[in-house]
UniProtKB/TrEMBL annotation, chain A:
It comes from the Bacteria. It comes from Geomonas silvestris. InterPro entries: Pilin-like (IPR045584). This is Uncharacterized protein. The lineage of its organism: Bacteria, Pseudomonadati, Thermodesulfobacteriota, Desulfuromonadia, Geobacterales.
Automatic annotation (TrEMBL), chain B:
Coiled coil: none annotated. Keywords: Membrane, Transmembrane, Transmembrane helix. The chain crosses the membrane at residues 20-41, 53-75, 95-123, 169-190, 202-222, 242-261. This is Membrane protein. It comes from Geomonas silvestris. Signal peptide: none annotated. It comes from the Bacteria.
TrEMBL record, chain C:
GO terms for molecular function: ATP binding; ATP hydrolysis activity. This is ABC transporter ATP-binding protein. SUPFAM superfamilies: P-loop containing nucleoside triphosphate hydrolases. It comes from the Bacteria. Pfam families: ABC_tran. Keywords: ATP-binding, Nucleotide-binding, Transport. Residues 4-237 form the ABC transporter domain.
């Protein structure tokens, strides 16, 4: 009987506390931190046969963290993104499980376009090729990086040939041949991005590629119009609006990163957003 | 009051003389001693890593201790037929259960404080070797430890509740671990379900998720590791709510446990 | 007021698969103050169920029970009761002395009382030497004696002992029997269960027999013993021969005649022997012992 009364009183108090408590929990400042992952060699000792699981968990943690960088949440304390920790965690994960494709995939997606860590990424891809000997994707990434970012077409063609041999996929063969002719940077980028976008499973990563591709397509459309203008008039237009006004371009495409495209002093198409996601 | 105190003392002796716990605590000290060695694997963030690893090690050890003690609190007494000689003394089952809980809670707190002190030494040593640009926030480290202790005391009450309804060790053991995992993730799931994802899910399942969210303990509130490591501020009002929540949650569970335990038959 | 009062007590267990077991059916029993009551029954008859109900370990399905005027199930009712469980086990990480101190605290005894009582019971049960060793290392007999020690610690009015003699060697049994006799002399009430009839015969005032959850009989032990006498064995010297109807005669060495006399012929035979100048050296009752009485009751109860 007394127990019932006590329980009733406690439940009442609980109800009084749990409402502000859960409200607080929803609105409390959250500082999303990736933090540090010990080196792969050390983890490997501790993890024994659970290292594949541990590797996957580390990769997922980074993916989650990365995703949260681009979702706006009112109550999130903004901290500078921990790119170094992200890369180090991926390295640790790959030491634990050199076969983890997610890690290569994410590294290729996150550290090339904006951070330009091409050498580090390609080293990691080379490491992966020693294990994933059947996989055409890794030489494809590495070849793309070498060609698109480093402009090292000789290395790139070697990678692409490897990818083409491994897969027999005509896409790689086309890409490989294109590198020999140093053909259209933007077209190459778009083809690569479309392939990546199609193979992406994670919605956040897919979105990253999609946005990047749209930006690149926008630039390609403008550049093409610019080239036609230059051929016809043997001069550069003063701004992009002139292209539209003179009928070379139907409209100026939108920058999916939220900026606007304009012509810089050297006559190159750039955007006020610098084609980077805001944090 | 004497009866209660004697039960707490007896529970305390039980724990202190348990060999399994000796082994766990030995492993715990070893883990903490390994922290400086492991911390040097991070060349840039030795101090942060040493705090992370110390707090994680303590949390892990407290989890082991809590789950073992909570799950075996009643089971062992049944298994070894101690209850026939103890519950037939003029002690009410409620007082017995409360004594058990308080003994276990005291031990968890003691464990946390001792390991925390050991960790403090280790953190000072490793951060002195490679100083960081973030100062060490001792107050927040202490707070994180306190929150951890509160969390595991809550989990102990969960374990005790399960062991009052079960005759086996495994059910309360795994149920406690399950509740621990669910309670640690429930906040994220709740926010996920409350957002865009929930709209695609159907209102019944959303309501079910929310009911579970209110039913199981919310352990995310007790995770103050990030403030401890990076010195991110903590709201005092939120802390007050969090600790009141812990106290009430334990009290309610103990009340229900007392009811089920008092009705139990020991043939 | 009786020391123990049990009214229409029943206990039904639900087994898995929807079964029912009637462990106890409509048990009514009173044990008076200062009485030593033996509760006799085969294994699984309901002795332990009765005792566990008295001690609050299980709650009855129907009926009531009181000890010292307090309903069982109320923790206060156990204040005046000393209980020895069947095959007891005590917190084996404690020493005997620590355990007794714990028990004393449960009864609200002061430190002085505890000190004195602990020394006393440890001495009485010959456990002084082992008092500061962990119970983990105790033999079965030692644990049983510690069980009695903790039951006697607070000098209760009522003792409830479940199979107090089990697990003890002959020395231990003698010790326990002496203790029960002492308790009786001090005017304490003792309610104990057993399946060994010899124990009952020596120490009990009354005995109840329970079979299959039903109380079969309750008898005073001295009446049972008297009723159990079927005849006498008489040895005489100074006669070379004797004959009487119903009397069986055997010749023993050394000029001794041994007669088996039916109960109702004893007076008559003794008269005859007296008149013939025989010297009577021994008269011993031949009785049907408690065991056969017990077996009879059990056999009837099982029908």
């Amino acid at each position: 009987m007394t127990r019932g009364l006590i329980l009733g009183a406690l439940l009442l108090l609980y109800a009084l506390v749990v409402v502000p408590f859960t409200t607080y929990m929803r609105q409390r400042p959250v500082a999303l931190k990736l933090g540090y992952t010990p080196a792969g060699e050390a983890l490997r000792l501790v993890a024994s046969d659970q290292r594949y699981l541990l590797a996957q968990l580390a990769v997922d943690r980074v993916l989650f963290y990365f995703g949260s960088l681009f979702t706006k949440d009112g109550h999130r304390v903004s901290t500078p993104p921990e790119y170094f920790n992200m890369f180090a965690t991926m390295q640790s994960a790959l030491k634990l499980d050199p076969y983890n494709m997610d890690a290569y995939y994410f590294t290729e997606a996150a550290f090339t376009w904006e951070l330009k860590r091409i050498r580090e990424v390609n080293n990691m891809l080379d490491y992966g090729m020693k294990y994933r000997t059947w996989d055409a994707q890794l030489p494809f990434y590495a070849g793309f990086n070498a060609a698109y970012f480093s402009k090292d077409y000789r290395t790139a063609s070697l990678y692409m040939q490897k990818a083409a041999e491994l897969s027999g996929n005509p896409l790689y063969t086309t890409l490989a041949s294109r590198y020999f002719y140093e053909a259209g940077q933007s077209a190459l980028g778009i083809t690569f991005l479309r392939a990546m976008e199609q193979s992406a499973k994670d919605a956040k990563v897919k979105k990253i590629y999609q946005v990047r591709r749209k930006a690149l397509e926008g630039i390609t459309v403008i550049s093409d119009a610019l080239n036609r203008f230059r051929e016809a008039r043997h001069t550069l237009p003063p701004d992009l609006k002139t292209l539209v006004r003179e009928g070379f371009l139907s409209r100026i495409p939108e920058d999916p990163y939220g900026g606007t495209f304009y012509l810089d002093s050297k006559g190159k198409v750039v955007s006020s957003s610098k084609l980077a996601g805001k944090q | 009051m004497d009866v209660f105190r004697a039960t707490v003392v007896m529970t305390f002796r039980w724990i202190l003389r348990d060999r399994v716990l000796h082994a766990i605590l030995a492993v715990a000290l070893l883990m903490i001693l390994l922290v400086p060695a492991l911390s040097t694997f991070s060349m840039r963030q030795v101090q942060e890593l040493s705090i992370t690893l110390s707090l994680s090690a303590i949390s892990f050890v407290l989890l082991m201790v809590t789950v073992l003690l909570g799950a075996s609190s009643v089971w062992r007494d049944i298994e070894r037929r101690y209850l026939a000689s103890v519950l037939t003394l003029p002690i009410s089952r409620t007082v017995f259960l409360l004594g058990r809980f308080c003994g276990i809670a005291c031990f968890i707190a003691l464990c946390g404080v001792v390991l925390g002190a050991a960790a403090a030494v280790i953190i000072s040593v490793s951060s002195a070797q490679y100083p960081s640009d973030i100062p060490i926030h001792w107050d927040k480290i202490g707070l994180a430890l306190l929150a951890d202790i509160a969390k595991y005391i809550m989990l102990a009450s969960v374990g005790i509740f399960f062991s009052t309804v079960s005759t086996s060790f495994y059910f309360p053991f795994f149920a406690s671990i399950g509740i621990y995992l669910a309670g640690s993730g429930s906040q994220e799931v709740y926010e996920y379900v409350s957002g865009q994802f929930g709209k695609e899910m159907g209102s019944v399942s959303v309501a079910l998720f929310k009911a579970v969210y209110y039913l199981i303990p919310n352990f995310a509130a007790f995770d103050l590791k990030v403030p401890a490591i990076y010195g991110v501020p903590v709201l005092p009002a939120g802390l007050g709510l969090t600790f009141s929540y812990a106290v009430l949650y334990c009290a309610i569970l103990l009340c229900v446990s007392s009811y089920t335990f008092s009705r139990r038959q020991f043939p | 007021m009786n020391a123990i009062d049990i009214r229409n007590l029943s206990k039904t267990y639900r087994t898995r698969k929807w079964g029912r077991v009637d462990a106890l059916q409509d048990l009514t029993l009173s044990v008076g103050k200062g009485e030593v009551f033996g509760f006799l029954g085969p294994n699984g008859a309901g002795k332990s169920t009765t005792i566990k109900t008295l001690m609050g370990l299980i709650s009855p399905s129907a009926g009531t029970a009181q000890m010292a005027g307090v309903p069982v199930g109320d923790a206060r009712c156990r204040m005046k009761v000393g209980y020895l469980p069947e095959n007891p086990a005590f917190y084996d990480f404690l020493t005997a002395r620590e355990y007794l101190r714990f028990v004393a605290a449960m009864f609200g005894m002061s430190p002085q009382e505890t000190q004195a009582a602990t020394g006393k019971v440890l001495g009485l049960l010959e456990l002084e030497g082992a008092a500061d060793r962990p119970i983990r290392g105790f033999s079965k007999g030692m644990v049983q004696r510690l069980g009695l020690a903790q039951a006697m610690l607070h000098d209760p009015e009522i003792y409830v002992l479940d199979e107090p003699m089990s697990g003890l060697d002959p020395l231990g049994r003698a010790l326990v029997k002496n203790i029960i006799r002492d308790l009786k002399q001090q005017g304490k009430t003792v309610f104990f269960s057993t399946h060994i009839t010899a124990d009952v015969e020596v120490v009990c005032d009354r005995v109840g027999v329970i079979v299959k959850g039903k109380l079969q009989t309750v008898n005073a032990v001295h009446e049972l013993l008297a009723a159990g006498v079927v005849g006498y064995q008489v040895q005489v010297t100074g006669l070379s021969d004797f004959s009487g109807e119903g009397v069986e005669v055997t010749v023993r060495g050394g000029g001794i005649l041994e007669l088996q006399v039916p109960r109702e012929l004893l007076s008559l035979t003794l008269e005859k022997l007296g008149s013939r100048g025989a010297e009577i050296t021994l008269i011993e009752p031949n009785r049907q012992d408690l065991e056969s009485f017990f077996l009879e009751v059990v056999a009837q109860g099982k029908k």
